[in-house]
Amino acid sequence: MEAAEEVLLRDGQTAMVRTATETDHALVAAFVRAYTAEPHLLALFGVDSPLESRLPGQRHTLLAYQGSGEALQLIGAAVWVRPEEQAETAEVGFLVHPAKRRLGLASILLERLALSALQTGIHVFEALLAQENREMLQVLQGSGFELLPQEAPPGWVRLRFAIRPNRRSIEMSERRERVATIASLVPFFRPKSVAVIGASRNPDAIGRRIFDYLIFNRFQGPAYPVNPSAQVVGSVVAYPSVSAIPGPVDLAVIAVPRDAVLGVIEECGKKGIRAAVIITAGFSETGREGRALQARLVEVAHSYGMRIIGPNGLGLINTDPAIRLNASFSPIFPPHGHVAMSSQSGALGLAILQYAQQMELGLSNFVSIGNKADVSGNDLMEYWEEDPQTDVILLYLESIRNPVRFARVARRVGCKKPVIVVKSGRTSAGHRAAGSHTAALAANESLVDALFAQSRVLRVDTLEEMFDLAALLADQPLPAGRRVAVVTNAGGPGILATDALASMGLEVSETPEALREQLRPFLPAEASLHNPVDMIASATADQFRQTLEKMLSEPGYDAAMAIFIPVGLTATAEVAEAIRQAVRATRTRGIVKPVIAVLMDQQAPATIEVDGTVVPNYRFPESAARALARAYQYAQWRTEPEGNIPDFPDLDIDRARALVREAQAEGKDWLSPEEIERLFACFHLPTVTSRVVPTPDEAGAAAEQLGFPVVVKMVSQTLQHKSEWGGVVVGLQEGAAVRDACASIAARLHASGHADELDGFLIQQQVVGGIELMVGMTHDPQFGPLVAFGLGGIYVEVLRDVVFRITPLTDRNAYEMVRSIRGYRLLEGFRGTPPADVAAIEELLLRVSRMVEELPELAELDLNPVIALPQGEGCRIVDARVRLLGSLT
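Above: the chain sequence. Below: its structure as tokens.
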């Protein structure tokens, strides 16, 4: 039986969706007959004979259900019927259980049905609906697909619509998913009642500590200890089982031995509990048996519409004063704030909470997702996106289970709230054997960097950097520009700050003369009035206040950094008060700019409170500069256009698909040069005129036809990287030289025992001048297709000046890719060379991305070199290799 997919309904409950098989015929027939007598639907679902109804054709049915085993209940079904094998149009039908309507299930089934149809070459759906079936009409109208009314019998509506995803259909799908995800997580963060299953009488046991912390931190609702061996736990009446609890329970926290967890989940499901936090370890982190048990936990939970956080986690915390939920075994309950954090590591979570407390960083939520068997960081981002208590999102990740969804969610969330990520495992070297330059370059961290760059995620290297940046973004406004004013009482830290700010792309711009005139009356004669303003060691707190206020009031600065070392008579606390007064005074006058403090004193406060907001304090200028630079980077992202995926009207996609299917039918791994040329022509990729011939004599004749100079390349399905075999000869000016070059290549392969692997010779017009680049694609099992761009030629794997992005590319992605490589200066024009045609390079990237999206059969693509010609002359693909999915030679 095909694996089922978990889906979320609008009320937050889960359901399972899978493809029907012949053994499901009786189940489908009973369901369809129970809820409709409409002849057309009966025919579509084929309930009158074993999956071959009186409506002939290929049929694909999806089933949605809840429960398992004898308790399994079918709640929806959808079907498409294709009248002929190669037809591009199919008729569709839907049926949803009356009790499950208006929960988005029909929309979910439509999306999955469209995906399955596209994979078989179907591009258009038709639906025949009774006019009174307003619910299904609303589903189709809300799908985002363009509906075209067709002629229909009286009392009926026939709609025809293309099912290729478009911007509106994707937006509608994301909106439905977001609503369902948020609804499913509400019982975790806002439970009205909590049961701690495994609450022990032993005060040192994990379950007892969780129950105690729940009570001690004043959870605003009933808390039930569950222990079959105790009547009382911590002076609270205990219950022998979840089912014995008299009232409803929203959240279960489970801390029982591993082998008992599955039974507890089953009991919670029967109780109607919608959310479970599993603290217990011993699941997927222990090996195959643990993975199987964890999968079964999720299956059982979802069959009851329940979601799981964990297992193998610390728990979760919600500091909202109206909730005060500490459903964890952390003794630290952080102060209420506007930063939410998810940690994949439970043990690290304890240290994180302690560090946040030391920094006086208030949190809204903290979640330890453990093995993330169900609820993931992606789900939490969607919840926090709409949470009014959360302004900044922090993620500590050890793995990314669904990178495509991560990119989609993080990009949307990042437009509203900053997402800061620490991703461990940077040095992992394990990745698959590579058959091309592109695949060899696509190490795991390259993929993660590409993901984060496209997602507009702020990636930091350490937890310390994460909290430094969070402290700034949580309470300070974003900088409007890159100009920073620095105020200090010591020259050394001021210089360090200036160097750090400049190295990170910010400007410590000169103090205007008019501002110097304002500073001169109250600062010592020895003070430096240039930025950074060094008030010297004897600076008083009042001089700090006046100077900072003047600098903040100057329109030429976008942010300010105040640095203090206790080397004189002024106390650190006095300077902190001076900073508070300066910020308050300027904000009273409507001047709102980010301010950061660097009080280099161990006794200094972690933050400086200013009328309900805080100015963060850093130990060293470099840390403060780094945080301010990343805040400016985020501010820039917020103002940049999102980018569009261009639609090229000149593509011949059907011809390209036919070409690829033909090559697959012939069992080919790599496409031949002729096939590549035909494929690229379908997408109007700029190639160089060439000929493939079997013999040296025919090579000479082909060269005469093409015109000199030419390049000779060996053709082989099995020998890759032609230069390693001496298989490329350039600059040939006459036919005899071409014949000699071909003969020499053949002789070398014969001498090395590879004569049988030579398939012929490619003769190509030589492109003179230009800059060698590479464009490629590799297909990662997790991330999907990735497009690569960088400097090309035979040294591409040595230089490694390559960037990756996940498809589909937007015009903004292409723009950034070209400008992200270290060698971009070469494209701008260098030492007398003309600027390259950058627009043509960007268009090539976008066309390659479209080709990859339209042809999922492509596994690897290597265009190397691509010659970038001067502005206005375009670019040319000089050499290309294409491998089909499912093989690696």
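Confidence is low (pLDDT under 50) at residues 49-55, 428-443.
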